[in-house]
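User: I'm writing a short methods note and want a consistent example. For Cadherin domain-containing protein, I'll paste the sequence; you return only the structure tokens, no commentary, since I'll be parsing the reply automatically.
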Amino acid sequence: MLKRGTNRISVKKMMSAVVCLALLLGVIGTIPQKPVYAAANFAEVVDIFGRTVNDNGIDLVDWQGYIANPSVKLTVKPPSSAVFPVTINLRTQGTTRLMMNKPSTLSATGSAKTLTFTNASQQLDFELEIHPDRIGGPNEIENYTLSMQVIQSNNTQSTQTIPIRVLDQDDNAEPSLPINFDYRFDTITGIFADAGVKAATEQGIKDWFYFFDETPYDTVAAGAENISIPGDNWLNPITATNNAAYNGVWVFLRGLNDPYSTGYPADNGKFHKRAGVQGPIHRSYGLILDFYSGFTPFSSLNDEEYYLAQMPGSACTSNCQTDVLGLIAHEFGHAVAFHSSWNGMVNYHSAGGSNDAEVIAYQGNAVPLDSSYHISDANSLYWDRISGQSGGRNHKFPSQRWMMTKLSLLIAENAGWKLNKNLSPFVAPSIVTTSLPSGTKGAAYSQQLTAKGGVPFYDWNVTSGSLPPGLTLDRFKGTLTGTIDNSAPQSSYTFTVQLRDYDAQSTPVTKSFTINLGGGGTVSNVVAQYLFNETSGTSAADASGNGKTATLSGGITWAAGHASGAVNFNGTTGYGSLPAGIVSSLNDFTIATWVKLNSVSDWTRIFDFGTGTTANMFLTPSPGGAGLRFAITNSGSGGEQRISTTTAFPTGVWKHVGVTLSGNTASLYVDGVLVGTNANMTLKPSSLGNTTLNYLGRSQYTGDPYLNGGLDDFRIYNRALSAAEMTTLFNS
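Assistant:
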């Protein structure tokens, strides 16, 4: 969708997660929602899940496309110790696009609403919603504020604030169908010569087609399409034809003086075809624009000026304006669907909406059309359930602009259009995360679940099973954090998570997860671990219990390490060898160790696993004077895939280094901090074949220097540790 607009008042921050919010919850270990503001002197705001939102804040969404967004219902509890009656003035700050349900006001300083409480037990609801915009996204966060001024009857006053976050899902996409705007017949009022009116009109039409999943049709030749266009005062119609070939949408536009505006399809018996097969879609449309006497066009596309918009015919005595964008959204809706020239809509109208199961499932009841093919605004049953807005002038929120709604789009499908159900208004809630990584008894753990779809002010619950003892889950932020109890009695914990989005009629979604635990400080998924706590001999035991003993050769000594013992290589003849094939079955992996260099020589190795100079993977602290580097190849040095850094390696101190590979992404860490990545790694340890020369402190190249320094706690994993796990490993 074409994006037009001015800079947003608030600052947006990019989300670091996927095109959806990262959230998590459990039952056992769930952080209780501490009612900080339930104290005697504060008003408490509670959501539909019973959570106090004062500290966490409120999450809203700006869906893809220019559509009425979901509202969230909240409940206010007054201060229990207040002197009643109590008045609470709600005001939104940071944007003019936020709105609250009526009675409320909109202004340049935001939305305002007043609640009055007669006693401490009274609770009052309000609803909050964001008007869409055309800037930002996808998946940015807009930050605003809800201010609550509490005034007691003795005139004691206090003010509280609650953060509001808006997930902006706009994608800046254009409609999939080419649209031809034909102004040749705007010869009566010339209204479309006004650049603002023209821009708002074209944008309003594009807003409809943004939601249609339609590809170009068979080409319509120039002069082959015809439509009747009314003359002034709807007299003396003329016949217009297309003056060029097209394969999408042709819209004939004309301004009149009286008596009304409308849109309509060309009822000429001609329909679009694809590959010669006729469908239900009309080939062209007419749009007639007229303004009430005394009303001037309001054509701004700056959504921060939304509060200034006026619907045509609204009560007005001075400075009256007709909002062009909203007028086009309404009238062109007649052209594309809400008209008796669409056979499918005639059937829908005749059935009173009872023939559309999808609409009934969404709305909760059938939604009939009146004789003019409008959705009635007289009954709240026919207001869009999720936004509270309607196709008319009456709905929950201040009536500034006619808006498309999810309901109106679902009904429009009856005309024969295919909606793009991959757009966020139509995506059902789901849990995206497929599994959780293993944890370690006695070690820190931090993970999140991710979700998408629905109204993303999510609530999570664990309906069965339990979390590992020591872990807690934050219902709002979704973080699963803590230190797993070292005496946790089980080696794995399985639990079923239930996701609820902020649509009360959504069906909860569930998924089961398992967290496996390594015991007593032993990390799971370890292929081999060498603590080097020996004090003599030429071998190092495998602490993982997998029996992969390391052999030490040449000038080595046993010395004090980072934690306990370490092996020290003399820089000329000392090195270690690990068993053949130790990494040959690995795809994803982690190799981590503590290193203390006595001196730094170019191309010395921390490790080098392979079969020679053709196939190998290595980690060097100084590749030709550069920074720490990891490389892997199966075709010699010219075919190396690398993570190169500028990180200089010091001498005389223990440093923790680690390299991970997850899919095609390799990461390099120093002291638990990411220092380099490569997201285009196609080679894996398994690409090297059966590695027979698996060195510690020695290179596959005979001319390279041996390592002059020590190693402690050398580990190989058969999976990629997360960044949080690498930090934990360093800290442990």
